[in-house]
Every structure is written in structure tokens, then in C-alpha cells.
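User: Can you write out an input/output pair for a complex, sequences first and structure second?

Assistant: Here is one pair. Inputs:
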Amino acid sequence: MSAISDAPARRPSPLRVFTGPRMRKFMRHRLAMLGLIMIVGLTLTCFFGPYLLPYDELYIDLRARFSPPLTENHILGTDPLGRDIAARLFSAGQISLTVGFTAMVLSTLIGTVIGLVAGYFGGWTRTGLMRIVDAFLSFPSIFLMLTLAAFLQPSPTMITLIIAVTSWMEVARIVEAEVRGQASRDFTAAARMIGAPHWWIMLREILPNVTGPIIVAATLTVARAILLEAYISFLGYGIQPPLPSWGNMLNNAQQYLESAPWLAIVPGVAITMAVTSFNFIGDGLRDALDARSVK
Amino acid sequence: MSTLIEAVDLKQHYPVRQGLLGRQTAAVKAVDGVNLRIHRGEVLGLVGESGSGKSTLGRNLMMMERPTSGAVLYEGSDLAGRSHKALHPYRRKMQMVFQDPFSSLNPRMTVEDSLTMPLRFHQPELSAAQRRDAAAETLERVGLPRSMITRYPHEFSGGQRQRIGIARGLIVRPEFMVADEPVSALDVSVQAQVLNLFSEIRESLGLTLLFVTHDLAVVGHIADRVAVMYLGQIMEIAPTRALFTAPKHPYTETLLSAAPQPTVGARGARIPMKGEPPSPLSPPSGCVFRTRCSHATPECDAAHPELRSRAPGHLSACIRDDISLVPAVSDRPTSPRRKQSA
């Protein structure tokens, strides 16, 4: 009983998260750190790079059409209209990353709320909500997205909403399973015995205990959202020209694959970098946050 | 002594559903027609083997699970039919301490958050500072220093966590507390400390306690009266001393004889228990204990023994008045220890 002395209590510092065992574990995960560095680099380049370039993404220089990379001021070359690819890539990256992030936030929000309610209340509520999840999952999401995109006005906002609406189910399933485990623990029963309202138990007692899996799922959702945006734009239903996105840059490149391969390679590499980085980070977080792997 | 809380023909049946349409094919009778009175200020021990329904009965009294039928009267008013809202004022009067100190505290909350949580809903007029003071005070009452209020559950040992669990129950100043196997998960040395804490708070706060346990030694230490449960029914209720010295039900006798004796070489008559406890899905007809009872007669097949008064304050649910049962503790002074020859 006397193992813990009456020493002055230490308030956990807000920086504790950076020194905890989980953070250290994440930092030791080499691929995850690489992914994190790449994503930070990619984001900074996309948002600040355009200020360093002499051209903007819409400036047409017909004398410099099809310049290969590293000619004159065009580091990454130019496209069939003579627009600077670097400028287009960065501005496309702003759109693609923003769409990816926003779609992740929305779908995580939807998924978390549905999973929380289904897992906490159980019974018929759970059955009903989870059958809706199953119904959404049973649609081939690409076709569902294309159909939606064909009927709705394609704008970045609309694309984000479409991606969010078709990718919240994974999060909902994960959260539901985690919450069901937490809801059967005694501290939840204790809170109910006290007479705490349901919303309080869900948000204050249970949610803080399931943040780990949510963060992991959210990270992987960003990767998927970027990929989905690229799909739709590549197929011509997404971000419309002249607004650039990584997907529609690939679309423009396909006719010139032989004569000007850099048109496809540059946005292709950007997509690959973004997606693999988020997947690496997701893996690292999974290893670090998984309750079974700590201690 | 006035009755604080009373169970009247309380039943908790869990439906067993089978098949595609989920038709109810049977019911697990976890609590099957229990009548029980708990007097104000007493400690009632509730013992029984695993699956006897003792924890379920405790949860029913707390309205943590709504009973299938029957009533729970708290100072005469029925709780079983009340809505979530209408139960709220009673939540403050009845609190619970859980068995597993590792699952009963939220790992993401500091002791302060866990302890002040009940006050948020029952005394919303208190300021944050007042809540904090109340939490620190209650922490001292259960024998932990105030300064530990900012710590997280993982920084404490099992016994300390159980103290925090008790503090959380006490902070709203309840009249009645159900302790559901509160010491079963603890080391024996820590068990004694936590039991003493229970005796202490019960004295100083005038708490009424239902102490659910499977450990007869624990019950002997803390309880004023003991109720013995088997297959969802109460077999015997008696003052603690009477139960140990003069059991009136064969099940109690068997239970007492199975408990290990602290004296080396001392070995009372072991009354062997036949077989496994029957499934609560299909309890035996007649007396539920007859299939394992060494005193069973053909009459037991048809009998539905009710709790009957056999001595002052001593109730037993057995039809046989003629049998004499072996007590756990005899009133004679213990005989000198026999030399054991190997």
C-alpha cells in the first residue's frame, strides 16, 4: 500500500504524448517516419512551391510546348499547351491533398458517430445501422462514385462529399467493434449506475479509449481518398480542366505516353508517393497504437 | 430494524433464442423468485458458488439490469417499473463497487475525473473547485493521500484501485452499497485491508451493505447476516454466527464443510457434493438442490420448499426438519492438534 509515497503529484505535461512509449515506438518505425517526412515535404512543396516558380498553372507558352524536364525554366517540362508541369503539379497537389484530407475528416466523422451509436446501444439500433453499413459496402464503390459524379456538378467540394459518402463504412465497422468491447467494461456500467446521460458516456468515457484505431483508420482513409479522387478525375468525372488535379493530369497524358512520357510519370510519382506515405504512416501508427503491442 | 431495500419474488430470466426467427426456446433462470429484506445499517453477505445468480441479484437491486418480474422496494417504493429518469434520484442513494479493479476505472481518466463524475450529475450546483475538494476528501477517507488525485489508474496497485472504486461509490454519500466480489481479485493481505476499510466506512457512515462473495471466510469476517444462494434461489438466511454454528440447510452444510480449515491436520467431516451444479436452463423439479443433496428423500422431488423460520431470524428452504447437520465451527473449544504420523 505504501509503494506510492505522498510525494507532490505530478500533473502530466501536455507534451507527454511526444515522449510516451507509443510515440517512441512510432518514431522507431523507419518506414512510417519516412512516410511522415515525405508527406510533410509534399504538402509544403505543393502549398509553398508555386511562390518560387516563374509561371502559374494556367500560363500558356505555345513556343515551349512539350519541353522535356529540366529545359530552361521548366524544371519538370511542359504539357501539350506549353503550361509548366511543376506549377500544375503543385496546384493539383493542393487540390488532391485537400480533397483527400477533407474527405477523410468527413468520413471519419460519419463512421465514428455511426460506429459509436451502434456499438454503444447494441440490439436493434446496432442491427439496423450495421445493415446500412453492409448495404453501402455491397455497392462497387467506383461505379457508385462515377454514377454520382455523372449526375452532380463536378466541383472539388462535390468530389470530396462523394468520396466521404462512399468511404465511411470501414471506420464505422472498426469503431463499432471497439466500442462494443469498451461498453461492456465496468467503468461504463459504473457511469450508467451514476445516472450519466448516454451522450456523456459515449463521448467522455468510451471515445477516448478508442481513438487509436480511429486514427489508424483515418490515416489509411486519406490514402484511399487521394487514390479515389485520382480515379474519378482520370476517368473524366472529377476535377474538370482547366483546374488541375493529379488524376486529370494523368488523363491528359495518355495520348502522349510515347512522345512525352514525363507527362504521365510526374503526376504518377506524386500519387504513388502520397499514397504509399500515408499507408506507411498508417502501418506505423497501427503498430504503435495497438493496445496489444504496447508493453 | 427497519427494512431499507427489499426484493419481492424477484426473477431475472435470460431468453435463449434459437433458429432463424429467433424464437425463444428456453430461459436461463439466473434469479428465480427471490424474497430478501436488507435492514438499514446491516451488512448482508450473499454467498453461493459461481453461476448461482448472486451477482445478478446484486445488479437487479441496483437496477443495473431490469428484472424480468417481481419488485424491488426501496423504502417501500418500487424501483422495477421506473423509467430511466424516475430512477435518477435513487442512483444517488445506491452505489456499487465492482469486482475487477482493472476494468472498473476508466484508463483515460484521472482519479479526479473518475471521482468527480458522479457529482456532476447529482450536485450540479457545485463548482469545479468544490467538486475537486470533495474528491480529495473522499480519497483520504479510503486511505489514499489527496495528492494522488491527479494520477491515472495504471499508476496504482489492485488494492489501491479498489479503494478508488469504493471512493467513487462513496462520494455521493449513498445509503446502500452493493459490493460485488470486491476482494476476489486481490491478494489475501490486501483483501484484509480492503475488508477493514469496508467495516470502517460502514461504521462511520452508517452504510447498509450487500456483500456478494463466494468466500465464506470473508463473509464470516464482515457480515451481520448471511444469505446462501443456489441456482437462483435463496436456500438459507441466518445471522452469521448461527449460520456457521448451526446450519439448517444441507447445501449450507456442504458448503461449510468444503471450506479449508486453517488448522493443520484439522479436518472436519467432509460432506462430498455429488456431481456438477445442474444447468440453470433446466433446474431440477421440486427442490433444486435435491440432485446433489445427501439427505434427499423421494418427497423432495415434488416439494417446493419455501423459506421457513427455523429459529429466531433463521430461515431455511428445506422440507426436512429431522436431520441434524454438521456445523463449520463447533462451540466447543478446539481440541489440541493431533500429531501426524507419516
